[in-house]
Structure formats: structure tokens, C-alpha cells
Specification:
GO terms for molecular function: glucan endo-1,3-alpha-glucosidase activity. With about 475 residues, this protein is of the alpha/beta class. It has ten helices and 19 strands. Helix 1 crosses helix 2 and helix 8 packs parallel to helix 10. It binds 2-acetamido-2-deoxy-beta-D-glucopyranose (3 copies).
């Protein structure tokens, strides 16, 4: 069995709402806002307690308050959940852990299928690092919207088997990501204590077939300013959140809204393995744009879950790969050589702003740049074929500067191709088209002095790649 990932694209379009009446979820809690990251326990088969200590320490150093432990039915799952809790206890830290049942891995047709879920929940409910909301153990899930646990309907199944079962009733705060139309949330009274909006992380409504309607007349190979502005409104937008928050307010029991944020999405598994081959549009600095949206709307969001710490197979990891850590078979092709910890280095600034409402001081200039390694139109001899919706992506390098003061950033892809931009104190988002055969370079200057000169080795925008790879190559540098 594998429990790594499980994401079947469910293109529930965010309802287009009239007006912008963001209803506040009436949560009676004094629990402060938190930022957690989704951790795929299915990729930790060989983790020692020390590996968990390393992940927890690194997450904490970047203002991440906890891990959602995505678990399935792998035989090592109980041991690794225990190791995670042991590590947090060993650190005597306030780091939060909670279970996130991957319901694409568990059986959930019979009432007895709920036994292991309750069992694990109760085993950890009172451990010191278990995340508690209003005195109840916080529990999440990925999917589960087809589980009946032997009852007549899904809500009844979850109520009888899990949330209202006498062993567990009153002890948990259940905030799953059910892939259902939010208009049906009211059917889940007694099940949902809140909603985790997994798909809010990406603009999933941007598909090749939807683009002509969403961006009429746009040339995605050379966006004009009007089209780019329209695209920027869609990428990282709060509309998917509004649809969920508004619907949650109509349910009796729900009090918590957890939004998602992610830097990327590319997966490329052939039909004979996981059979997933698609991208989401993560252009226009999605990682930063989405954070800015969540910060601007922080009054309506209780918690944020980062997707993900380590889901290498879908390219949205921000944590490091550990020595000896096995990847989902086949994903080495797009993961090896593609470290994403540069994105992790931006997390502290935005997570802190989300939690406190105040932007933290920038003590050192920081430059993070990323790009895909080949033009979208490249045609390698790759039997899996190009990922669905690749056409909508732009062949650009994306740069973010956290600047201590005003300055200039020069981006280039060839010596003969550079552009200089003014940079202001604070967050700056810039981009430059990539030239086939070119590199990626960013030079930050101030008062005629070079502050950062970043030209990562190992990146070339290769017009003749050996296989499709729409993962991001991420480079970063911090001023001395
Ligand atoms: C529940 O957990 C205990 C260990 O804590 C184990 O012995 C038992 O078999 C588990 N039961 C189920 C139904 O998973
Ligand atoms: C565990 O580690 C061994 C030795 O490094 C490696 O061969 C194996 O693939 C790993 N297994 C998993 C599931 O990570
Ligand atoms: C890039 O970011 C990572 C994560 O914050 C950090 O550990 C590393 O030192 C950074 N690299 C440079 C060159 O600043």
C-alpha cells in the first residue's frame, strides 16, 4: 500500500459570488492564528526520531507552528506518527501535531472501517503536542466525501462511525477537506467543526479550456498588460475562500476555516503507476500572491495549511529531502536537483504577517528566483506526454525580493537580454521571459553597489529536454 498522494483533480469551480460579503465564521475560540504544513507520513518509511526533530526544528525556524500528519494504511504509519510525537516531546517544544487521515488510502465502506480512525485519534488526543482547539483534539482529513461507514449516507456515516461515536464525541474538533460543493455543507451538521479548503491553494479554475472565457483574447505566449492584470486577479484570489466561508456560516456546527497556500503543482505519473499528469497555473508568483491575499483577509481565516512540506510527487514541497528518503517511484526524474528550500526561506515573513497582522522587519535583503527547466512547447520523446493544461503556463523566470531599502534588480536570461527594475523597501515581485538556451540571473544593487548576484549553477532553459519536467528550479540568496 502507498499512501502518498491521492490527489484526484476535482474541479469544483468556486461559485462566483455576488458582492463581497465575507461572512466571518463565528468561532468562539481564543486560539491564536496558526500556520501548519502538510507532511506526507507515507514518505517517511525510514525516518528516525532525529529526522522528525530536524523537520520540526526547521519548520519552527521558518515560523511554521505545526504539521498536519497525512496518514494512510502503510504498515510503518503507526511507528512514524509515534516518532513525530516523540520528536516534538523531545524538543519540549510548543510545535503542534495533528492527524490528517488520507481517506483515499483508508477503507470506509463498513462501520468497522472507522475503528482504526478512532483508535489512532484517541491514542494521540491528549499527547502534549496534539493541537487543541477549544479543549478538543484537532483532526483533519483529505477527501472522505464518499465514505458511508455502512450507513445510509456520507454525513450519517461520519457521525455514527467517527465524530458522534460515544468513544470520541466531544473530544475532537474535526476540520476535513471534503471535496463537495460548499453549498451542501449544511448537510454535515454534527460532522464538520470546520472546513479545510484544500483546493484554495491553486487557481484550479484556470484550465486550457476555460482560459478563452476567463481571459478573452489573451495570448498566453505573450501576455499584454491588460491580460496579465486579469490573470493576476485570478491567481491567489480569495474567491474560493469566500465561497466556502459563506457556506460554512450556514451550518450549525462549523466554527473553523482553514485555508491553503502552495507554491507549485506538477505531477507526471504514467498510467501504469499513479496515472496523474497535470499542472496547475502557479505563475504570477502564486506562492507570494496567495500569502498576500491571506494576509489581507486574515480576519476571515483561522488557520493556514501549507501544501506541502514534502509531497515530492506533486512538486509542491518546501522542505528538504532527507538522506535515504525514497520518493514516489518515478518522481526522481522531476525532483532530483530541484531543491525548493528557497521557498521555505520566504515563509517566515508571510506566515508572521498572517499571524500577527504586522509585517516583520526585513533584516537582510533576500532574493528568491524560480523557473521551469524547459519551454512549455518542448517536445521530448516522453511516452507520458505533456501534462494536462501545460499550454496556459508562461515561459518566464519569477523573482521575489524582500528588500531592506529601495534599490534596483536586474534580471537576465542571456548576456544580451536583461531588464532592470526599481525595487522598493518590502516585498517586490518581478519577472522576465526566459530565452531557450538561457540561464537565470538576478543582480540586486543599491547606490551603485552590488548587494546580491545570483546565477544558479545547474539551471539552463533547455529547449531539448530528455522528458517533460514542469517542476520549478528554485534559487535563493541572502545578502551578507
Ligand atoms: C487500537 O490500538 C491498540 C494499540 O493502542 C491496538 O492494540 C488495537 O489492535 C487497535 N485496534 C484497532 C481496531 O485498530
Ligand atoms: C529505506 O532506506 C534504504 C537504505 O537507504 C533504502 O534502500 C530504501 O529504499 C528506503 N525505503 C523507503 C521506503 O524509504
Ligand atoms: C536559501 O534558503 C534556505 C532556506 O531558508 C537557507 O537555508 C539557505 O541558506 C538559503 N541560501 C542562501 C544562499 O541564502
Amino acid at each position: 500500500m502507498h499512501s502518498f498522494t491521492y490527489f484526484y483533480s476535482i474541479n469544483l469551480l468556486a461559485a462566483t459570488l455576488v458582492g463581497a460579503s465575507h461572512l466571518r465564521i463565528p468561532r468562539q475560540s481564543t486560539v491564536p492564528k496558526l500556520v501548519v504544513a502538510h507532511h506526507i507520513v507515507g514518505l517517511t518509511a525510514n525516518y528516525s526520531v532525529e529526522d522528525w526533530v530536524a523537520d520540526i526544528s526547521l519548520a519552527q525556524a521558518n515560523a511554521i507552528d505545526g504539521f498536519a500528519l497525512n496518514i494512510g494504511t502503510d504498515d510503518y504509519t503507526p511507528q512514524q506518527v509515534e516518532n513525530a510525537f516523540l520528536a516534538a516531546e523531545q524538543l519540549s517544544s510548543s510545535f503542534k501535531l495533528f492527524l490528517s487521515f488520507d481517506m483515499t488510502s483508508y477503507h470506509c465502506a463498513a462501520l468497522t472501517d472507522a475503528d482504526p480512525l478512532r483508535n489512532l485519534t484517541l491514542q494521540y488526543a491528549t499527547r502534549p503536542n496534539q493541537f487543541q482547539v477549544d479543549g478538543q483534539a484537532f483532526v483533519s482529513a483529505f477527501s472522505g466525501e464518499t465514505c458511508t461507514f455502512g450507513q445510509g449516507d456520507v454525513a450519517g456515516g461520519w457521525r455514527v462511525g467517527y465524530t458522534q461515536h460515544p468513544d470520541i464525541a466531544g473530544k475532537i474538533h474535526f476540520v476535513p477537506s471534503f471535496f463537495v460543493d460548499p453549498a451542501t455543507f449544511s448537510q454535515y451538521a454534527g460532522v464538520l467543526d470546520g472546513d479545510f479548503n484544500w483546493n484554495s491553494a491553486w487557481p484550479i479554475q484556470l484550465t486550457a479550456s476555460a482560459i478563452p472565457n476567463l481571459l478573452p483574447g489573451a495570448n498566453l505566449n505573450q501576455l499584454d498588460v491588460t491580460a496579465e492584470t486579469a490573470l493576476q486577479k485570478l491567481i491567489g484570489s480569495f474567491d474560493p475562500d469566500t465561497a466556502h466561508i459563506t457556506s460554512l456560516a450556514t451550518t450549525q456546527s462549523s466554527r473553523t476555516y482553514m485555508a491553503a497556500v502552495s507554491p507549485w503543482f506538477f505531477t507526471h505519473f504514467p498510467p501504469n503507476t499513479y496515472n496523474k499528469n497535470f499542472v496547475y497555473d502557479c505563475d504570477e508568483h502564486l506562492w507570494v500572491s496567495r500569502w498576500e491575499t491571506l494576509i489581507a483577509n486574515r480576519d476571515h481565516v483561522d488557520f493556514v495549511e501549507i501544501l506541502t512540506w514534502n509531497d515530492f510527487g506533486e512538486s509542491h514541497y518546501i522542505g528538504p529531502k532527507h538522506d535515504g528518503q525514497a520518493l514516489p517511484p518515478g518522481s526522481e526524474a522531476w525532483v532530483d536537483g530541484f531543491d525548493h528550500t528557497g521557498w521555505l526561506g520566504l515563509t517566515s515573513y508571510f506566515a508572521t504577517a498572517f499571524k500577527t497582522g504586522a509585517t516583520p522587519p526585513i533584516e537582510k535583503d533576500q532574493l528568491v528566483m524560480w523557473a521551469r527547466p524547459h519551454p512549455k512547447s518542448a517536445t521530448p520523446a516522453d511516452p507520458v506526454g505533456p501534462p494536462r493544461d501545460f499550454q496556459i503556463l508562461q515561459d518566464k523566470m519569477w523573482a521575489v525580493v524582500l528588500a531592506t531599502a529601495d534599490g534596483q534588480l536586474t534580471l537576465s536570461s542571456l548576456d544580451a537580454d536583461s531588464q532592470t527594475f526599481d525595487v522598493r523597501e518590502g516585498v517586490n515581485k518581478l519577472s522576465l521571459p526566459l530565452i531557450p538556451g538561457g540561464y537565470m540571473r538576478g543582480v540586486l544593487t543599491r547606490g551603485g553597489q552590488t548587494v546580491i548576484d545570483l546565477k544558479p549553477d545547474g539551471f539552463v532553459f533547455n529547449p531539448n529536454p530528455p522528458a517533460y519536467n514542469f517542476n520549478a528550479f528554485v534559487a535563493n540568496a541572502t545578502a551578507a
